[in-house]
Amino acid sequence: MKHSLAICVLLLLGSTAVAAQTPAQNPAAQVSPQTDAERAAKRADIRKLIELTGAANISADALQKMIEPLKASYPQVPEEFWNTFVHEVHSDELVDLVIPIYDKYYTREEIEELTHFYQTPVGQKTIKVLPKLSAEAIDAGQEWGRMVADRAMRKLREKGYDKTSSTPSEHLPTGQ
Length: 176
What we know:
Layout: H1 2-20, H2 36-53, H3 55-73, H4 79-88, H5 91-105, H6 108-119, H7 121-158
Helix pairs in contact: 2-5, 2-6, 3-5, 6-7
């Protein structure tokens, strides 16, 4: 028991020592850690990119579309509630949640390149058509999924499987 406790203490101390190493001492750490000012500047660039692409507005539109089925499911809830609910939703909250995600996957240079792209004519067109393109692509994907499922079901029926059996009817032992 004392031996196990000693091992636990040593492991804890060892992990604390590794965590306390500076980047120069720990080769696994980032080569050039960002300063607070660099982090803040990158996050400001990300916010600019999100605003430029209209992503916050798209999320507000998506919220409206999500509320419609809720309104239908709760017809007894007055319209005033739904209006208040929508007005209490602030897209900045979502943007604040999304910024660290962009930060995780993009360098500051990549954010700058994306911002530059979205300021070009083709970038502006992309911003306008992407929601429609995405919706149509989702519809196409669902249709494709139905086609694949239909083919699979047809092949299963051809092999003698039905919805209730786990073996094809042609392979069932005789006498059953």
